Fold this sequence. Notes:
Layout: H1 2-17, H2 34-39, E1 47-53, H3 57-76, E2 82-88, H4 94-106, E3 111-115, E4 118-122, H5 140-169, H6 171-199
Parallel strand pairs: 1-2
Antiparallel strand pairs: 2-4, 3-4
Helix pairs in contact: 1-6, 3-4
Amino acid sequence: MISLVLIPLFCFYHFYKVDAFKVYGSLNFSVSNKGDFEKYKVEDLRKYKIFYFNGEKSQELRQLKELRVFAKDMIKKYDTINGAKIRFGSKTDYDTFISVINIMSEEKMPTWALFSDNLYALANPKPKPTKKHSFVCGTNAYSIERTLQMQEENRKEELRIFQISFLKQQWVIFLGYFGIVLINIFVLVKFNKNKNYNQK
């Protein structure tokens, strides 16, 4: 019976040690080539506000907050005059670089490109109204409810895929545990039979 308690604890310890429960994510990222950068004259397209990151943590945290506010404001106002030019110095650490890319992703910056040690962020112009009349079946509440339902279904599907991949990676441990449980049950039954037989 002790092994029935200890083996699962060892298994969970092993899972945490090998980061079996860790969820990984990713960001889309591409680097511009010199030809395209010069062809579209990205450096001259906007009046850029410069954000310079060079390893000073307190200053970088402040600038990251400013960059987020500036990016949000550009997108909200459809600003086609201004842009953000983020310069990375030789002492910039990886966390700061990833934080800048996170801001671009989270704020849904429509156009941003990395060239050399600079990242350029540009907002799109305000879209022209279309003359097409769309027909929406249902109310706003129904649309919101349907969106939430789809998000929940996607979340469940992602969880199911994760669980299947997890079981495929760790099947030997589960099989071993199942075997130990069966052996314990068999030994307990046999021990009880022998005990009852000796008492008779």
